[in-house]
Amino acid sequence: MSDLQQYVSERKAVDPDFREDYEEGYQAFKIGALLRQAREASGLTQEEIAKRLHTKKSAISRIENHSEDIKLSTLERFASVLGRKVEVSII
Question: Does residue 45 register a pLDDT over 90?
Fold first, then answer.
């Protein structure tokens, strides 16, 4: 376990607010990272995605880097441009 992983684990054990904020932040980061990976795997640039979604490159960058409040409809449109689908599960 890395020093960072150990720190996070210890902090989550003693600080419920940190644990909740960390999990929320991680999920938002994960969504953006998955979108970027899917875009890159499709061989498309942010600019190409932006054109297909009728938006600006900066909006695509914001989605990939700060997706904590992304609308489901936006996520579905982004995935559709990549030839992908969004799957949601409640666990």
Answer: yes
Give the DSSP H/E element, type plus range, for residue 37. Answer: helix 16-41
CB atoms within 10 A of CB 21: 11
Confidence of residue 40 (pLDDT cuts 50, 70, 90): very high
pTM of the model: 0.74
Question: CA angle, corner 36, sides to 91 and 47, nearest 5?
Answer: 140
Residue 34, judged by CB atoms within 10 A of its CB (0-12, 13-18, 19+), counts as middle
CATH topology of domain 3-81: 434 Repressor (Amino-terminal Domain) (1.10.260)
